Every structure is written in structure tokens, then in C-alpha cells.
Amino acid sequence: MIISLILRINSVVTSEEVLELEKPFSEEEVRKAIQDSYSDSDGALSPDGFFFMFYQKIWDVIKGELMALFDSFYVGNC
């Protein structure tokens, strides 16, 4: 069953798409994900207890450390 699923996925995802999916996160990609997230302070908190608006407002302050976290995740050090 697993092999048939893998074969099915391989027939759906092109090699170009695989390369795109395997690239490290770009700063613009992370910034856009944060900026496009729902940020109403009456909404749900993120897993760490902060509203996304917090991250949106202090992006310039935290982007270096946040990108370092994503880079560590990408290489498997998290």
C-alpha cells in the first residue's frame, strides 16, 4: 500500500515541483506567511501564546532570529 501511494505521488508531483518544495524558506516567504496570517487580538493565540499581530508589528526586530530558526529546521538541527 505504501509503495503504491509513493508511486502515485511521484506521478502527480513533477521533478520541478519537488525541487521547489525542497528549497530553504526565503525571508520573503516567511514574512508573507506572517503578514497574511489572521491578526485580530480577539482571535486565537498562536501556539506560543502570542497573537500574530505581535509578530507582524515586530517583524524587523525578530526576522534575523526567526530566519535562523527556519534555517536550523531546514538542515535538521531543531
Largest sheet: none
Q: Report the radius of gyration as a whole number of Å.
A: 17 Å
**Mean pLDDT, rounded to whole units?**
82
Are there runs of 5+ residues with pLDDT below 50, and where? none
Total count of strands? 0
How many helices does DSSP assign? Answer: 5
The H-and-E topology, N to C, reads as HHHHH
Q: Choose one word for the global shape.
A: elongated
The amount of helix comes to 55-70%
Instruction: Give the structural class.
Output: mainly alpha
> What proportion strand?
under 5%
> How many angstroms separate the termini?
31 Å
Short description:
It is built from 5 helices and no strands. The protein has helices at residues 2-12, 15-21, 27-35, 52-57, 59-75.
3D structure, described in words:
With 78 residues, this protein is an all-alpha fold. The protein is built from five helices and no strands. The protein has helices spanning 2-12, 15-21, 27-35, 52-57, 59-75.
Which SSEs are present, and which pair or pack?
Blueprint lengths: L1 H11 L2 H7 L5 H9 L16 H6 L1 H17 L3
Notable characteristics:
single chain; 78 residues; mainly alpha; 64% helix; 0% strand; elongated
